[in-house]
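Subject: Protein record for review, amino acid sequence with backbone structure tokens
Why sent: The fold of this protein is of interest and is recorded here as tokens.
Enclosed: The protein record, placed directly beneath this head.
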Amino acid sequence: MTGFPRDANRPGEQRHLERSTPVFQCSCRRAVFSENCLQIRYTIDEATPFEYIYRMIDGKDREILSILLENAAISKAEIARRIGLAASVVSERVRRLESDGVIKGYEVRINPRALDKPLLAFVYVTDAKPSQGFDTAAALSRVTGLEELHKISGDDCYLLKVRAAGTDELNAIIEKEINPVQSVTRVRTTIVLNAVSERPCLAGHDIGGATTVDR
């Protein structure tokens, strides 16, 4: 493996090069997975682009990712046994997938009923346009029981996934934490009767082939 030359604009930065392919340029930090490799170009300013070629994402990497999606607590030795590589090789591949931002982290999925939080609700929030510079998203991100917060298109502006002990706690969250936000003009709530399927990110997809990822 060949070391990528250090860039004069970023002392100490170095990436490894496994395969050279045409490079695209963008002003944001964006990477593309393809069948052969992942690559990205960072732009410091309009006049000074510089690039790093990320290592190849191959079939073994995708096998590792598929296994980790099923069980993130699985041992490297067991992954190695399943895909036919040495445990040390698997550990190095996982480390690089982490450092490249392909694996962003690991999560524990807890049974909410075990902690007396069985109620799941989706809360739709509309805010004033314009909001006079008030950061509605930042205020909503502090809501008790919040699991996900998304800015959405359509009649509503934000979608919150909120978990609570029951309708009393959910009502208190809405009345005391969401409605008082100064830019909020409307709140609608949908209570989940039965969570038919809850899956981790990309669990329902074939992670092979072309995929786009923001870092």
Observations:
- The longest strand covers residues 119-127.
- Residues 1-54, 209-215 have pLDDT under 50 and may be disordered.
- The CA atoms of residues 37 and 182 lie 47 Å apart.
- The two ends are 24 Å apart (CA to CA).
